[in-house]
Amino acid sequence: MARINLLDPLLSSRIAAGEVIERPQSVLRELLDNALDAGADEIRVTIDGGGIDKLSVSDNGSGIAREDLQLLGARHATSKIHTQDDLYDIHTLGFRGEALYSIGAVSKLTVSTFSSETNEGSTLVIDNGKRKEITSSSPDKGTIVSSENLFSEIPARRSFLKRASSEASMCRQLLVSKALAFPHVRFTLISDGAIRLDWPKCDTLKERVMFLYRGDGIADADVEALHFDGDSFTVDIIAGNSAVKRSDRKEIRVYVNNRPVDEYSIVQAVTYGYGELLPGGSFPYAAVFINDSPELVDFNIHPAKREVKIRNRAEIHHAITTLLQNGIKRKIPEITPVQNEFYLENTKKQDTEFIPERKTTPSYYIPQQRTSESKVTERISQEYREKDSKWLEKAKALQEAREKMKNEAPLPVKEEEKDEGIPIRYIGQAFHLFLIAERGDELYLVDQHAAHERILYDELLSQKTVQSLLVPIKLELDSIGDEFLQKNAEVYTKLGIMLSRTGDGIWEINALPASCRAIESEIIDFIESSRLDEKELEAKLFAVIACKAAIKAGDDIDRWSAEALLEKVFKLSEPACPHGRTFLIKLKEKDLRLMVGRTQ
Hints:
There is one protein chain. With 600 residues, the chain is an alpha+beta fold. Helix content is 33%, strand content 23%. Strands 5-4-3-6-2-1-7-8 form an 8-stranded mixed sheet, covered by helices on one side. Strands 9-10-13-11-12 form a 5-stranded mixed sheet, with helices on both faces. A 4-stranded antiparallel sheet has the order 18-19-20-24. The longest helix is centred in the middle third of the chain and has 18 residues, at 391-408.
């Protein structure tokens, strides 16, 4: 008996459909692509039962001619490409001709459309692979495509679907992802009769992306819009500044020619671009929109079109990194009050009036790392105020003004200010960690360890004082480490670490930077494990040295040392430790008064 036979056409169509349609989210992805390709600027999505019972997409696009409905839903039937050359010059989201065919094989597919070219409407129904006659009913404009009872005839596939609420959530995530790249299109989502999303048309990408970011409590002022024009591509980035961060990469979104894609190299370029602006373990909010020449990209890799090959990836990678390095600035966090309606109505009351605790006390908090689950951010329109880029110059100017006033008019001056003679007034230490200082009408909290770490790091970069060792320190490296050092020993020499090879895998340290004498073991571990280029070696090595040598959290610090440290802090151009963590927070006097109900 023959063991090889041809599969039934319906069975083969359902097998093929499994590559394209996995769940309601997959159906929505394909229908949205078709609506956008039809030129729609208003798209409404309606789902019932998580999209399993029914999912429909209506648009106001150009519609489909009745004669085209004859082929619609057949495998590889498409209006997007016609020749092999078209495959390498794709300007549409869809092009494979598999979407409607696959949806019709695993559900009841209904396509009702009005063609703007022929001024006639038609409706086609394909019920689990069974094609019905075309009728003349249609909407007044555009197209409505619906999928009902997904996988009803394939129980094994249906059993793998999640609860209706989970499937609906995934559909919403997909709609958001698509909508970000099309600000000129209005998107509406209705789930089980309730409006879950309604994003109007926007003029710019930033306006559209802010619909998403505001949901996480991010203010417009904390987001930058960056643009770059390359030879064959453009890059637009909507990204948060150093005050906006999260603990994962989920909000680094990448789009290539308006398609959301999974492209690790671009995500890597974003993280490189932020560099030390964010502390270790933190990642930015960034939406990257790349428009590249169609002949330089290939989406014909997987039916879901989430993967892409980019021929000029290196240039795009460099452009993104440079754009972020030059465009995203560090921001000093501030403690700010959140004024409620009651407080605004009572700002003219006397300072001495006691304010009840409930409802009337303005709430306030120190901005923390943002998460999508954060509840407090729903009450706050702006967690941080704009960084004053000239804070150091203003501090110096304030001190000069004080000195001038002392000379011109001998007004009474506090004894502490006479003794200090520095731009800021040191108040004390809190929790054996924070130095508290006053400057003008601002109060500063400074992380003593991170601040001292940064100062030591900068001193190491500039001085590199070398101290010879009476007794060399021996190192024993594996073959990889030995080969690396043979090629890069001179890099360490430039950093003040003198190395010499005495045998196979055997090395000696003959000299170290003067500040490294107490942390030889950390230097040895660093040399044994690091395989970096010259620039990275210098930054990482000196960061390790500075971290180990700096004042620790929990250490007591005398007044003289604190004042000397604060004086150096105000000379820094960037108040951040070598690892990227901002170590300075400020609170304005007027905000502090607001917190306790003083209106002055």
